[in-house]
């Protein structure tokens, strides 16, 4: 029994939880350790020595910067597309009644439920059928398919928690549709959109499967890492880049969690 009166977890459950966390996070710790190893061609445990030279080597590799630049640009534009389309879909589904609404909602979230390889094959077939050459924009379109779902899920949940009386009151007071959206709706859904956008950016940044089918000869950072592991030149460089990927994807997810953890109250519900 804890001090607040709630029962404490059994010892066995605590041990099982600790083992589960170790199983999930120990490989990430190993990635960080091998980023400092002095061994260049293989992963040896324990590392024969520790060095920071690989950070300088990584900094001076132009192929790393090209892949990183491509990943950031793809993730940023995919997130922007997802914010626009996801918000519009969420507004339509949550605020209006029409025939087939639930079917449309299912179709919107379907891309993230399907295996990535199915989405990738479908997109590649569509691009080939339409004779669209693989380029930067085909990667963006591929990533936008699942980024829209992330934004949609966040936005539709917040729309449903926002009281409709606020919008009705705004209209009664003479505001037009744009003013109502800007001054009433947007402040209530802003954190949900920001959280959805950050999650979408993180998903796009480290996407591999869909990118493989839509990138052609271009290499995003995850694809570059995969190729480096298959045909290694300097293995620790891959680990240094992996550290960057972990940080880039972890920080948006943490921020999204903190932005949405208190979003269970209905805005404008009053007492």
TrEMBL record:
Pfam family, one: BPD_transp_1
Keywords for this protein: Cell membrane, Membrane, Transmembrane, Transmembrane helix, Transport
Residue ranges of the TM segments: 12-36, 70-92, 104-123, 135-159, 180-203, 240-259
Classification via PROSITE patterns: ABC_TM1
A GO term from the CC aspect: plasma membrane
ABC transmembrane type-1 domain span: 68-256
Biological-process GO terms, alphabetical: transmembrane transport
Membrane topology, record value: Multi-pass membrane protein
Entry's localization field: Cell membrane
PANTHER family found in the cross-reference section: PUTRESCINE TRANSPORT SYSTEM PERMEASE PROTEIN POTI (PTHR43848)
Stated family: Belongs to the binding-protein-dependent transport system permease family. CysTW subfamily.
Full protein name: Spermidine/putrescine ABC transporter permease
């Amino acid at each position: 029994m804890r001090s607040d009166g709630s029962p404490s977890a059994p010892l066995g459950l605590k041990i099982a939880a600790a083992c589960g966390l170790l199983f999930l996070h120990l490989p990430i710790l190993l990635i960080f350790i091998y980023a400092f190893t002095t061994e260049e061609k293989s992963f040896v445990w324990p590392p024969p020595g520790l060095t920071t030279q690989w950070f300088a080597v990584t900094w001076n590799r132009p192929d790393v910067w090209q892949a990183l630049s491509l990943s950031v640009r793809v993730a940023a534009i995919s997130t922007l597309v997802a914010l626009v389309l996801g918000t519009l879909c969420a507004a339509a589904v949550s605020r209006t009644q029409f025939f087939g609404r639930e079917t449309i909602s299912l179709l919107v979230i379907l891309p993230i439920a399907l295996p990535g390889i199915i989405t990738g094959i479908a997109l590649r077939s569509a691009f080939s059928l339409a004779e669209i050459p693989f380029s930067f924009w085909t990667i963006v379109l591929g990533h936008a398919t699942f980024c829209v779902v992330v934004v949609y899920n966040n936005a539709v949940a917040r729309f449903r928690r926002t009281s409709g009386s606020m919008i009705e009151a705004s209209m009664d007071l003479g505001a037009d549709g744009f003013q109502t959206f800007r001054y009433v709706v947007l402040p209530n859904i802003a954190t949900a959109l920001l959280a959805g956008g950050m999650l979408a950016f993180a998903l796009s940044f480290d996407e591999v499967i869909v990118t493989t089918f839509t990138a052609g000869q271009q290499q995003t950072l995850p694809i570059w890492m995969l190729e480096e592991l298959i045909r290694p030149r300097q293995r620790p460089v891959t680990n240094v880049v992996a550290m960057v990927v972990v940080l880039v994807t972890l920080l948006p997810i943490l921020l999204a969690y903190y932005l949405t953890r208190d979003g269970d109250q209905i805005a404008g519900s009053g007492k």
